[in-house]
Specification:
The structure holds two protein chains of two kinds.
Chain A lengths: L4 E3 L2 E4 L5 E6 L6 E7 L6 E7 L2 E5 L7 E4 L6 E5 L8 E8 L1 H6 L3 E2 L3 E5 L1
Parallel strand pairs in A: 2-11
Antiparallel strand pairs in A: 1-3, 3-8, 4-5, 4-9, 5-6, 7-8, 9-10, 9-11
Chain B lengths: L2 E3 L4 E5 L4 E3 L2 E3 L6 E7 L6 E7 L6 E3 L2 E6 L4 E6 L8 E8 L7 E3 L3 E6 L1
Parallel strand pairs in B: 2-12
Antiparallel strand pairs in B: 1-4, 3-9, 5-6, 5-10, 7-8, 8-9, 10-11, 10-12
The chains are: A mainly beta, B mainly beta.
């Protein structure tokens, strides 16, 4: 169990560029979550996968955002035409069905995006 | 609507002092979970405790203790004899017991423990 891995740890991009982040959950976890955390705020829910199915999306996830989890393994979060307001820490978390009831999620260390 | 309020934005204490972090929540659900997470500078959210709405027993784990009072919708966290390593941002969170199991986080309290 190597925990939840996120790549890259930091990303600086110019406004208008596309960026993609990757999350590798704990291997036996079928639930995967993306959260966004802006400076001075708590994490906010973006989207949730159970296996490969995306079951819920927040209204925060505008049409410039897309998330995938092919084959129910790793997940990617893509932001198209980035804006300065997209600058934030993007956190991924995973859990098993049993684990989430008892322990909650395991979070990754996040990807910090800076849009200049 | 569900909401978590952490009114203390930042707290500074001197090492060995006790400190209490406040958390007030709002929910219409009769069954829910409350959590505390620690976020050190590395950014990872570290699980500290989970409490379900049926269990109002206070809990102690080493220097950490939690006081859950359903009557006041509060779930406060106390660190006894604080240490420099306790310096971090602490988040209180509310979570549903079914469906998506998504969290509603508070805005966090930054704790600075000075040597």
């Amino acid at each position: 169990d190597t925990g939840v891995s996120q790549d890259p740890r930091h990303k600086i991009t110019k406004r208008g560029q596309n960026v993609t982040f990757r999350c590798d959950p704990i291997s036996e976890h079928n639930r995967l979550y993306w959260y966004r955390q802006t400076l001075g705020q708590g994490p906010e829910f973006l989207t949730y996968f159970q296996n490969e199915a995306q079951l819920e999306k927040s209204r925060l996830l505008s049409d410039r955002f897309s998330a995938e989890r092919p084959k129910g393994s790793f997940s990617t979060l893509e932001i198209q035409r980035t804006e300065q307001g997209d600058s934030a820490m993007y956190l991924c978390a995973s859990s098993s069905l049993v684990g989430i009831a008892n322990y909650g999620y395991t979070f990754g260390s996040g990807t910090r995006l800076t849009v200049v | 609507a569900q909401k978590v309020t952490q009114a203390q934005t930042e707290i500074s204490v001197v090492e060995k002092e006790d400190v209490t972090l406040d958390c007030v929540y709002e929910t219409r659900d009769t069954t829910y979970y409350l959590f505390w997470y620690k976020q050190p500078p590395s950014g990872e959210l570290v699980f500290l405790i989970r409490r379900n709405s049926f269990d109002e027993q206070n809990e102690i784990s080493g220097r950490y203790s939690w006081n859950f009072q359903k009557s006041t919708s509060s779930f406060n966290f106390t660190i006894t004899a604080s240490q420099v390593v306790d310096s971090a941002v602490y988040f209180c969170a509310l979570r549903t017991t079914s469906g998506t199991y998504k969290y509603i986080f508070g805005t966090g309290t930054r704790l600075k423990v000075l040597a």
